[in-house]
Each structure stands twice: as C-alpha cells, then as structure tokens.
C-alpha cells in the first residue's frame, strides 16, 4: 500500500489538488502495479514564510535572486 507525502506551498485550489491526486495515483498504478484503492496521499501545505532556504525565509531568498 503506497503512502505518499507531498509538501507544497499553500494556495493551490481544490481543483488543482484533485488533479494532482489523480495524476499521482495514475503514476503509482502504472509504475508500481498497485490498485488505485491502495494509494493514499497526504498533502502538507506550508506558507512560504514557514520555509527556510540558505539561511533566509523563502520569500527573502526569492527576493535575493
């Protein structure tokens, strides 16, 4: 039973997440040979200010590029 955890920035719509669930599930069925019902997906959403990169908050990091 595959359990998949996906970490993404907050703000995706429910429609976008539904499409992601569909495509990720299809990929697992095709590549690993499991049934759709066996695939469980957890999505962890984070505000960009809760992410750090190179010693800065992610928005600060993006601003420095």
Strand order of the largest sheet: 1-2
Total strands: the figure is 4
Average pLDDT works out at 95
User: What's the architecture in CATH terms?
Assistant: 2-Layer Sandwich
**Poorly predicted runs:** none
Q: What structural category arises from helix and sheet content?
A: alpha+beta
Portion in beta strands: 25-35%
Shape summary: elongated
Rounded to the nearest angstrom, the radius of gyration is 15 Å
- Supply the number of helical segments: 2
If you consult CATH, what is the topology? Macrophage Migration Inhibitory Factor
- CATH hierarchy, class: Alpha Beta
Description:
The structure is a single chain. Helices cover 38% and strands 28% of the residues. It is of the alpha+beta class and 65 residues long. It has one domain (1-22, 39-65): Macrophage Migration Inhibitory Factor, CATH 3.30.429. It has a two-stranded parallel sheet with strand order 1-2. Strands 3-4 form a two-stranded antiparallel ribbon. The longest helix has 19 residues, at 14-32. The model has no long low-confidence stretch (mean pLDDT 95).
Short synopsis of the structure:
The chain has helices spanning 14-32, 58-63, and strands spanning 3-9, 40-46, 52-53, 56-57. By secondary structure, the chain is an alpha+beta fold.
Features:
alpha+beta, Macrophage Migration Inhibitory Factor, 38% helix, 4 strands, 65 residues, two-stranded parallel sheet, elongated
List the helices and strands and how they pair.
Layout lengths: L2 E7 L4 H19 L7 E7 L5 E2 L2 E2 H6 L2
Parallel strand pairs: 1-2
Antiparallel strand pairs: 3-4
């Amino acid at each position: 039973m595959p359990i998949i955890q996906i970490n993404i920035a907050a703000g995706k719509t429910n429609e976008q997440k539904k499409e992601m669930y569909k495509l990720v599930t299809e990929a697992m069925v095709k590549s690993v040979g499991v049934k759709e019902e066996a695939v469980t997906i957890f999505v962890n959403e984070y505000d960009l200010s809760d992410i750090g990169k190179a010693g800065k908050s992610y928005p600060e990091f993006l601003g420095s590029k």
